[in-house]
Amino acid sequence: MRNPIIKQVIFFLLFAFCAAFTTGVLFFDVVILKDQVKEISATEIIQESFLFITAAVFFMQSRRHKALRGGYILASAFFGCMLIRELDGLFDLIHFGAWIYFASLLAVYAVCWAATMPKTTFNGLYAIVEEEAFPILLFGLVVILVFSRLMGLHQIWQAAVAGDNVRLVKNLVEEGIELFGYSLCLTAALRMRYSSIQKI
After folding, report:
1. How far apart are CA 145 and CA 141, in angstroms?
2. 97: phi > 0 → left, psi -120 to 50 → alpha, else beta; which?
3. What pTM was estimated for this model as a whole?
4. CB 24 within 8 Å of CB 159
5. Cα–Cα distance between 26 and 148 in angstroms, integer?
6. Could you tell me which of 117, 95, 56 has the C-alpha nearest to residue 64?
7. What contacts 99, CB < 8 A, 6 or more positions away?
8. Terminal-residue alpha carbon distance, the chain
9. What are the φ/ψ torsions at residue 41 (nearest 5 degrees)?
10. In angstroms, rounded to a whole number, what is the distance separating the alpha carbons of residues 5 and 8?
């Protein structure tokens, strides 16, 4: 798209949709379902779905672009490890904290795979960073890994909220911010996919 004004308006509308979608999911969980955004909730399920699709998009990119395969494999595995972490409740049925073993196995496998093809790894990572949508991906990761964790500090909500609603408010804020971040990462991954198709 050559018109930069239209492009930025589209980006604004896209981000606004992600924010509105996140709020809508939280509303559905808390108001309609009367749920407290627990392990099994619409918010959690959509988070995991977004992570799965994001990881799958990067994996498909690795299959499509052999010269960039290593970098895309690492990106796919990174989001795969995040997905495993989000599914910690499921892995706890095996053993408490078992998710870390599965995530570690995936991470080691991906790193070893990438190490066998260093040229495609560096080229792939460079291609990802050079993408126009990469800042969106980066911002999404900051939202997920930093902002949601800081806003989810129990001490903040314990001081701000009276009564037994501390846990609900904390979960609502933290999981809502995470979902927004995941929606940004998915948006970026799909934009990268679309961009690479256009270049073919």
Report:
1. 6
2. left
3. 0.91
4. no
5. 15
6. 56
7. 84, 85, 87, 88, 91, 92
8. 17
9. -155, 165
10. 5
Per-residue pLDDT of the chain (200 residues; tens, 9 = 90+): 567 788 888 889 999 999 999 999 999 988 888 777 777 788 899 999 999 999 999 999 999 999 999 999 999 999 999 999 999 888 888 888 889 999 999 999 999 999 999 999 999 999 999 998 999 999 999 999 999 999 988 888 888 877 677 778 888 889 999 999 999 999 999 999 887 655 54
Q: Rounded to whole angstroms, how far apart are CA atoms 98 and 52?
A: 19
Helices (H) and strands (E) in the chain, counts: 10, 0
One-letter amino acid for residue 135 of the chain: P
Backbone torsion region of residue 172, taken as left when φ is above 0, otherwise alpha when ψ lies between -120 and 50, otherwise beta? alpha
d(CA 76, CA 83): 10
Q: Helix, strand, coil shares of the chain as percentages rounded to 5? A: 85, 0, 15
Q: Where are the beta strands (DSSP E) in 72-191?
A: none
